[in-house]
Amino acid sequence: MFGQSLTRRLSDIQICAGEENWVDTRTVYIGHKEPPSGSEAYIPQKYPDNRIVSSKYTFWNFVPKNLFEQFRRVANFYFLIIFLVQLIIDTPTSPITSGLPLFFVITVTAIKQGYEDWLRHKADNAINQCPVNVVEGGEVVRKQSRKLRVGDVVLMKEDETFPCDLILLSTSREEGTCFVTTASLDGESTCTGLQDTKAFTTEEDFDTLLASIECEQPQPDLYKFVGRINIYSDRNEPIARPLGSENLLLRGATLKNTQHIYAVAIYTGMETKMALNYQSKSQKRSAITVLIRPHPSSVSPLLSVLYLCILISKALINTVLKYVWQADPDRDEPFYNQKTDTERQRHILIRAFTDFLAFMVLFNYIIPVSMYVTVEMQKFLGSYFIMWDDEMFDEELGERAQVNTSDLNEELGQVEYVFTDKTGTLTENNMEFIECCVDGHVYVPQAICNGQVLPGTEELFFRALCLCHTVQVKEEETVDGIKMGLHQGKSTSFYISSSPDEVALVEGMKRSFFSVSVESRFELLEVLTFDSVRRRMSVIVRSRELYLFCKGADSSIFPRVISGKVAQVKARVEHNAVEGLRTLCVAYRKLSVDQYEETCHLLNSAKLALQDRDKKLSEAYDLIEKDFILLGATAVEDRLQDKAADTIESLHKAGMKVWVLTGDKMETAAATCYASKLFRRSTQILELTTKRTEEQSLHEVLFDLSRTVLRQHGTMTRDTFSGLSTDCVDYGLIIDGATLSAVLKPSQEDSSQGNYKEIFLEICRNCSAVLCCRMAPLQKAQIVKLIKASPEHPITLAIGDGANDVSMILEAHVGIGIMGKEGRQAARNSDYAIPKFKHLKKMLLVHGHYYYIRISELVQYFFYKNVAFIFPQFLYQFFCGFSQQPLYDTAYLTLYNISFTSLPILLFSLIEQHINMDILKKDPSLYRDIAKNSLLRWPIFIYWTFLGVFDAVVFFFGAYFLFYNTTFTSNGQMFGNWTFGTLVFTVLVFTVTLKLALDTHYWTWINHFVIWGSLLFFVIFSLLWGGIIWPFLNYQRMYYVFMQMLSSGPAWLSIILLIVTSLLPDVVKKVVSRALWPTTTERIQVSERAHTHTHANHFLIYI
């Protein structure tokens, strides 16, 4: 039967004729040697050189390209238009007032981007000029890495880094394999081997090698490679051998424990898998990047549009009022404006439009151009606080937290859903062999074998564990910087594998004194590698007989078993799963010689295919791996990471919902969830699993669960419900991958059942925690996408440590990778990388909290100070006949946002700590105070805008009424309009700076220096600007104005009085609200101050 089934399927997976001519493949000639005549047509192909280009600009295109990219931003383009309007028409202010701030922003941004690109150029040159040994004409030639070409044979020595993607040809090791450390790519230590060309060991040998490689075109997938090598000999037909990912050496990996290897370049330069991965990573944008996140109850991205509308309204109102004012013949244009007859006779619409543009220029400062560069600097500099945090440093790994995307800092303070992997994220991924169940009997490691002869089934089971794996023995003393294999100061061998489960099982066999003896050597014939879809692996070995040993998940083994003590083993597997242990089932079958030959033919045909190789291999494995005899099952323990339970509990208290997405079976995952406090003992578990949907229809199960949670919570919303509440039942949901697929893809036959997604989301919203088990990597991303697209649009965070977590990390708003034992691919593709799961607590509750508080204050403060800055200019037009006369001097208009008020808010947004970080860690509920964008909502925004308008009215009318019919100088001289404007501007600068000082809670010497230094700089600048006759100015209207104002006692009194009056409402509001309606944060601030004063008093008493 087996042979017949193989024969029937052979035709389905035969290699198509002419397959090598597909456009999605390439042919590489090793050593650039033509194949023998008559074998195949020699068609030279052009491939890119090996230069790596991560830089964005060149010396020649930096200026035009950078300017083009910067002016693609709406804000910069807007200010460019304003500047051009000032150049074209007669406007009340100098073009310098708009041009200089724009030039400053463009220059600072260009310098920052240019410096970053220079660093990239420097790194590229270091890589591209690295020397490489190339075999040419039987000799070794030393070349620069950038000069490597596809087809070159290179000689690599131990500890050298591979300059491009290579196919291994031969090594210095007898078995033809080599050890590779891929820490810069994915962290895994693997071995790669190719047997067919291992006899070529010298440069002269490779000069005689005639071979070509057919393979797929470059793809970014690090774990996939499809190709075949054709070796030409004296025979007419070339020898064809399959090539897979196990034969590929990736750029950036390092050769270890091998003296030297010979390999051929297959992908070079920007076509290497590493380069393709960096290119394909999409950039995420935070809410502040589009100014403010869209949220139903928060300020929308229309904020800039709103201020633009205010600007247009001001200009329109003033334009209309100007012509209403001039409608009276007595109030027409005065003679001293020197309007020509042509200008007077110009069409009124043209004159009105010109005046409208002039008013736009006059009021355009309400939109803060400098805010955009300040936000960029705040994000960039602020990210270093995460990288410098010593509490997020792991001594074992020697790694600190990394920031790959600084644009998302404030999103860390807005997370509502956390999606986490289990193995390696919540757990240590450090497996320990606990027990095994063989033929219904349970064995622990100490009692497996003490030299005695085991019965047939037991011996076969343990032999299967010793043979069915991909573990390698390594002698190296250190792996990726971590010392291993040390015993009493001496280096000893240890096991390495891409799967920690396999290492645990082999080490368990070693500790139990069971190994394959010399007398019973087994020859490894085939390895049917593990994949996440099959969830099993197999080996074919030969001793005196042919065996197929297979191990894998119970769900993939039990359906393929035809005999054995299934019931007893299944019961033990379920028992171990409930205890939180990871289980694997082991089975075998004997093969006849004919079955083995047909198996080899089937596997070779699939391996040599260049198209759909994975699909054909899967079909071949499916035919081979069946009719098993069950031997038993194993159980290994994966301990929880240190403080993982405390971290999850803190996230719950902070109002976040934690979902665990794992590929493990339900019982194992559920036990881990209880241990990590995701589920509490009082949690009522709701199951949405295949087992339940087999008993009831999916439609009925969903509506039953919906009624259950809604009956308890009623109309409670997500905002009011807390999983930690003692007033209601705490629900936890468990769903498996198969049921999730049905939920996300409802039956089309009965559309009356409605949309299952909405019901599923409603159930999840009322559960404090959700466990998704038996999940494929793509399903993890689908879950995250489903929650992101829900009506509330919550901010999501995904955290994982393995390559199977990359999809959900990229899908979530914030992706965090853990530098774990499953490699570094998750860390490479994440926005942030941390050494351990416990560091997530401080990253969110402390750093995320601070970042959001700081950026919120920065954005609103910028708009506040610009409203207070420009609204007096608007009021002034009512007193100057709408003549577009500026209230402030050109220098003040230019430097207000650049110099006088920029540094204090930048420093505030970098170091402000409204609450001590120790309190933030101890009391996670404080995170709720800033949840759901609470500091950037419309009421708070309107308050800041009102405060700016109020201050502007106080500045203008306060100065106006105090000056009205009053002599301010000792000689009786009256103040002019520039003195009036200077007084208003002085009050403005001092008020907005002192407002920020009142909002500051964390004072250091840097705060004092910057805040008081900014005010001192304004005074000194004003004295110098008006006290010296500057030769480059055509006219100097500010000469001696500032000194004259300061020489007046009433002016001093007015400045102090107006500053106090402006700040008083905000101070009163804070005092009243703290006394009557204090927030949790404000209560803690008060208690902190009381605690500090108490300590100070005790210290004084002690003295």
TrEMBL record:
Binding site for Mg(2+): D421, T423, D801, D805
SUPFAM superfamilies: Calcium ATPase, transduction domain A, Calcium ATPase, transmembrane domain M, HAD-like, Metal cation-transporting ATPase, ATP-binding domain N
InterPro entries according to UniProt: ATPase_P-typ_cyto_dom_N, ATPase_P-typ_P_site, ATPase_P-typ_TM_dom_sf, ATPase_P-typ_transduc_dom_A_sf, ATPase_P-type_domA, HAD-like_sf, HAD_sf, P-type_ATPase_IV
Topological type in the membrane: Multi-pass membrane protein
A GO molecular function held by the record: ATP hydrolysis activity
Transmembrane feature ranges: 74-89, 302-325, 356-375, 861-879, 891-911, 941-963, 975-997, 1009-1033, 1039-1064
GO biological process: phospholipid translocation
P-type ATPase C-terminal domain location: 827-1079
CDD domains attached to this UniProt entry: P-type_ATPase_APLT_Dnf-like
A GO cellular-component term linked to this record: recycling endosome
Segments forming domain P-type ATPase N-terminal: 44-98
Places the protein is found: Endomembrane system; Membrane
PANTHER family, per the entry: PHOSPHOLIPID-TRANSPORTING ATPASE IH (PTHR24092:SF33), PROBABLE PHOSPHOLIPID-TRANSPORTING ATPASE (PTHR24092)
Catalytic residues (positions): D421 (4-aspartylphosphate intermediate)
Catalytic activity from the UniProt record: ATP + H2O + phospholipidSide 1 = ADP + phosphate + phospholipidSide 2
Amino-acid positions noted as binding ATP in the UniProt annotation, renumbered to this chain: D421, K422, T423, E502, F530, K551, R582, T662, G663, D664, R774, K780, N804, D805
Alphabetically ordered keywords of this record: ATP-binding, Magnesium, Membrane, Metal-binding, Nucleotide-binding, Translocase, Transmembrane, Transmembrane helix
Protein known as: Phospholipid-transporting ATPase
Cofactor: Mg(2+)
Enzyme Commission code(s) on record: 7.6.2.1
Family: Belongs to the cation transport ATPase (P-type) (TC 3.A.3) family. Type IV subfamily.
Signal peptide residue numbers: none
